[in-house]
Structures are given as C-alpha cells and as structure tokens.
Amino acid sequence: MITQHRVWVYGDNVNTDQIFPGKYTYTLKTPDDIAAHALEDLDPAFAGGVQPGDVVAAGFNWGCGSSREQGVTALKYAGVSIIIAASFGGLYFRNCINQGVLPIVCPELAALARTGDSIRIHHEARRLLVGERVFEIPPLSPSAQAILDGGGLLPMLQRRFAGEVVE
Q1: Which of 3, 58, 74, 147 is the most exposed place for a label (fewest CB within 10 A)?
Q2: Which stretches in the chain have pLDDT values below 50?
C-alpha cells in the first residue's frame, strides 16, 4: 500500500512544551481541545491548517524535554499518524509507539523536506518517496511494531485481555 501525505517541517530541538504547551496539561481533556493547541507557540498556523493524514518532518532531537504524552497525543488528535525526524528524544519516540503514531528516523529526508511537500510512503517496501528521491524506513523492534500494529499500547492490551474475567 502506498499512501500520500502533506508535510509540515520543523527544526532541531523542538521540545514537548513547544509541541503541546504544558500550561494546558491538566485543563484540556477532549481530543479536539488538545488538538487545537498543537504547536501553537511554534507554528500558530498548524492547528488550523493540519489535515488528517498530514506528516510532521523535523530535525534532530524532536520531542526532547518532558515525558508528557500530550506532545504526541496533540499531534495524533490533530490527524498526524507519522512523524519523521532526524532523531527523536528517547521518551518521545516511545510515547509515539505507545500512542500508535509511527516514528521514522530519517535524517536525509528531514534535511530535504519543505512544508507543503508531498511524501508518498510505500509501507510494505518500507520506503519514503519524495519526488524522485527514495529513503529507506528503518525497521522497528518486533515488540514496537506489534504495538503499532495493535493501534497503540492501550488498544492492543484492551483487545488482548478482552473477555478475560478478573478475579
């Protein structure tokens, strides 16, 4: 399957507070409210312009900072299901997996992409296609891939334990 996506590009060292301002952590509860504040301090146009299926491409150390999962869920609720970066903050990468958002490490693409570009993703061949350029998608660990295939950690566990009686 090949899917096509519009790209939003950001730089290096974008932290979780820039992705989702910490001041909203305990006040916003609904997915729509959380999505409305995604990247508001970094790119005020993002929340109003992002569409389901759009992709974020970023530089080095995307998602550094706190372990708050809202840095991932804000983008997920806004419709982003894939984030491509030159590198990720370790906790952010894991939060992506747990939330069912595909994190792709690809420094070459992160340096090439421009906001508004179109990216095609050939999922079975594990390739990113930008114009005539082709980039390989590095494999994830089997456990991380299983979580992504399950839609995220919580949905995977809910399905796994559905119907079991807890005593």
Answers
A1: 3
A2: 164-167
DSSP state of 12: S
Structural domain tally of the chain?
1
pLDDT of residue 163: 56
Beta bridge partner(s), residue 136: 127
DSSP letters, 108-141, are: HHHHH--TT-EEEEETTTTEEEETTEEEEPPPPP
- End-to-end distance of the chain based on CA atoms, in angstroms? 43
Check which CATH number belongs to the domain holding 94 and give it.
3.20.19.10
Residue 166 lies in a domain: no
So what's the pLDDT on residue 46?
Answer: 98
Whole-prediction pTM value? 0.92
Give 13-64 as a 3 state SS string: CCEHHHHCCHHHCCCCCCHHHHHCCCCCCCCCCHHHHCCCCCEEEECCCECE
How many residues are listed for the chain in this entry? 167
Q: Is residue 94 part of a domain?
A: yes
**118-122: strand order across its sheet:** 102-105, 82-85, 55-58, 2-9, 118-122, 127-130, 133-136
